[in-house]
Amino acid sequence: MRANPFENALVQLARAARVKKFSPELLARLARPEREINVAIPVRMDNGNARIFDGYRVQHSNLRGPYKGGIRYHPDTDINEVRALAFWMTLKTAVANIPFGGGKGGVAVDPKTLSKGELERLSRAFVRALAPVLGARADIPAPDVNTTPEIMNWMEDEYEKITGDKTGATFTGKPLGSGGSEGRGAATGLGGFFVFDALREILGVRKGASVAVQGIGNVGAHAARIFEEHGYRVVALSDSKSGIYNEDGVFVSEVIAHKKKYGTLSGFPNAHTVSNEKLLMLPVDVLIPAALENQITKKNARTVKAKIILELANGPTTPEADDILFKRGIHVVPDILANAGGVTVSYFEWVQNLKREHWTEDSVFRKLRAMLAREARAIFARSRALKTDLRRAAFVVALERIEKSLRNKK
Question: What Pfam families does this protein's entry cite (predicted)?
Answer without folding.
Answer: ELFV_dehydrog, ELFV_dehydrog_N
